[in-house]
Amino acid sequence: MRELLLLLLIVYSMISISNSLVYTYNLSVTLNKFYYEYYNVTVYSGQSIAFNVTSNVPVTVMVFNLTQFNFFYNMQPSTPIYRSVGINVTGIVGPLIRGTYYVVAFNNVSDSTAFVRMNITEVPVDIHYERSSLPAPVGIVDYGVVNSTGRLIGEILKYNEAIGYITIYNISAYNSTFEIPSGAGLQLNAVLQVNTLTKAYQFWLQNVVDFITTNDTYYFTDNIWNSTSEFSNMSNGSVSGNGHVYFYNKELGYFYGVSTNNFTYVTPFSLILYIKLLSVNNNGVTVSFGYNNGSGVIWYDNATIKVSNVKSAYMLINGYNMTSGLQYYDLELVFGGIFDGEYTFYKSMNASLGLQIILLNGTNVTLSNLYTFGSDTEESADNLMTIYENGYAWVVVGNDNFYTQINPKIPNLIFPKQTHLYQLALKNGVISFTALILIVLLIVLAIKKRRK
Question: Where are the transmembrane segments (predicted)?
Answer without folding.
Answer: 429-447
